[in-house]
Write a sequence for this structure.
């Protein structure tokens, strides 16, 4: 349905509070862009915890601390919803923290697995993610709740996040680090491969040298649709875009450069310390 028509049908219950996103760095912008496309009138905040990147190598205790600080920050900013645009924190912290704040929290994995599990013509599904996400086995667990026939193969790609954050995507060493993982995945012969870390869609130009692009799934689209549906059903839409604001915990210049492939920031993100 046309967006304006949806707005007119929501009894003018306009909610101007921002939607807030977070990730360890630029990865969450792959989700941010899709949500912005579907919900163009929303005010948005984005926090990239670049000081603590990569999340995939952190312990549960550390990840819970990081996520809690970010949620408290967004509470002060009066966010109406927080998007965990990060698979790792969705896997490790969502269950622990989900009831502690005064806004709706959207975890990427738990939101998209019901959809992934019902996609047609998939018998074998490959999952590539950070070590923390893979070690939690959350993808196989969540998918088997909705479809027990699909065989899921989970594989960690420990080096990929840094390749993106350090903008080394086209370097020969990065190419071989990407190829190494893809070859292991190909031995499983998956029908589709889920890019289960929000940083990985940045690597698509390289990934498609080894596997046809249509075999990869970026769950961000399903995630964005799920968020839009919730905001419509709960009459939480805004009717006019006024601002977007980006924050990082270190190195704003690097964030602006690394993010270019997915989102062109008009100015440097603001450096803030949540400790
Ligand atoms: N982009 C995040 C994810 O989806 C975190 C990556 C990292 O910092 O290791 O898991």
């Amino acid at each position: 349905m046309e967006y304006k028509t949806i707005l007119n049908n929501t009894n003018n219950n306009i909610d101007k509070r921002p939607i807030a996103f977070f990730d360890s760095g630029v990865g969450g912008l792959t989700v941010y862009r899709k949500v912005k496309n579907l919900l163009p009138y929303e005010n948005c905040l984005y926090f990239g915890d670049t000081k603590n990147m990569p999340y995939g190598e952190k312990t549960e205790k550390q990840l819970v601390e990081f996520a809690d600080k970010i949620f408290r920050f967004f509470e002060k900013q009066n966010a109406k919803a927080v998007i965990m645009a990060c698979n790792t924190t969705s896997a490790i912290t969502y269950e622990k923290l989900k009831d502690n704040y005064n806004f709706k929290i959207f975890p990427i994995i738990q939101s998209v697995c019901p959809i992934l599990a019902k996609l047609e013509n998939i018998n074998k599904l490959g999952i590539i993610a950070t070590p923390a996400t893979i070690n939690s086995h959350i993808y196989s667990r969540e998918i088997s709740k909705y479809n027990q026939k699909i065989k899921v193969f989970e594989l960690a790609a420990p080096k990929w996040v840094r390749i993106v954050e350090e903008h080394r995507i086209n370097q020969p060493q990065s190419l071989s680090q990407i190829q190494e993982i893809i070859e292991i995945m190909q031995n499983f012969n998956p029908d589709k491969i889920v890019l289960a870390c929000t940083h990985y869609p940045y690597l698509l130009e390289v990934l498609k040298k080894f596997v046809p692009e249509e075999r990869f799934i970026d769950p961000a689209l399903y995630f964005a649709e799920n968020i839009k549906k919730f905001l419509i059903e709960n009459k939480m839409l805004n009717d006019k875009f006024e601002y977007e604001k980006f924050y990082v915990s270190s190195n704003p210049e690097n964030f602006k450069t690394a993010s270019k492939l997915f989102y062109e920031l008009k100015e440097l993100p603001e450096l803030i310390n949540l400790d």
User: Anything to note?
Assistant: The two ends are 44 Å apart (CA to CA). The longest strand covers residues 124-129. The chain is about 40% helix and 15% strand. Strands lie at 19-23, 44-48, 81-84, 104-107, 124-129, 151-156, 192-195, 216-217, 244-248, 270-271.
